[in-house]
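Illustration: Aldo/keto reductase.
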Amino acid sequence: MTQLQLHDTAKLRNGVAMPWLGLGVFQVEEGQELVEAIKAAVKLGYRSIDTAAIYKNEKSVGAGIREALAETGLKREDLFVTSKVWNADLGYESALAAYEASLERLGLDYLDLYLIHWPVKGKYKDAWRALEKLYADGRVKAIGVSNFQIHHLEDVMKDAQVVPMINQVEFHPRLTQTELREFCKRHGIQLEAWSPLMQGQLLDNPELKAIADKYGKSIAQVIIRWDLQHGVVTIPKSIRPQRIEENASVFDFELSDEDMERIDSLNRDQRIGPDPDNFDF
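Result:
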């Protein structure tokens, strides 16, 4: 991982290249601030943007992408754009319609990655068939899931024509998901972290502070680097250009094996988001 750079990519099971680091926009409202954040990220070298229908900000994400492309001279295919189908749309026809609605809001012709947002019992398999059709028809470059536990993945894979290429889950030093990571690795499913900084709750952790001081880095940079060295794609959220730049400054150092283990030891199986096996939306 030492030689990684911001433009470097993980290769998904179908050969599609996905940037290791991207910009998350969860809990960012529609508006010019989001447009400017996306432009700043792209100009800094980010090539991956992650949104979702339920974030209700796809219009501003699309506007930011268009303006960033116009101002940098980059092409649409230079960016990797992800969105997700929300729980209310997890039927076959409704998931297909949700994809078209996301494209319309974003103002894009295709997505690079489309995910099922949550494993709603009794619904996600129909939605997965819809994603398989979108993929077979060439409407999307890659398909995957979010917040799926091992048993959800096994259930999908039992009947799937296409194995999920991504599983985007809550992942941070308090929730290291070791068994799930190993399962995904065995089956060629790339793990991706949402809320890698535990929504800021880890940014005053004394153990992480000691490690960060050792490397002359921030706690956020150490956590993001820890993600990358675990082979986990990560999408820290920020709206401030200074923080967006800081989050990307993680390619000029490497955590020692000892420090990786110290961070691993902070695990408490502690979630800040819902439990995928026990949630109500």
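Reading the tokens back as a structure: The chain is about 40% helix and 15% strand.
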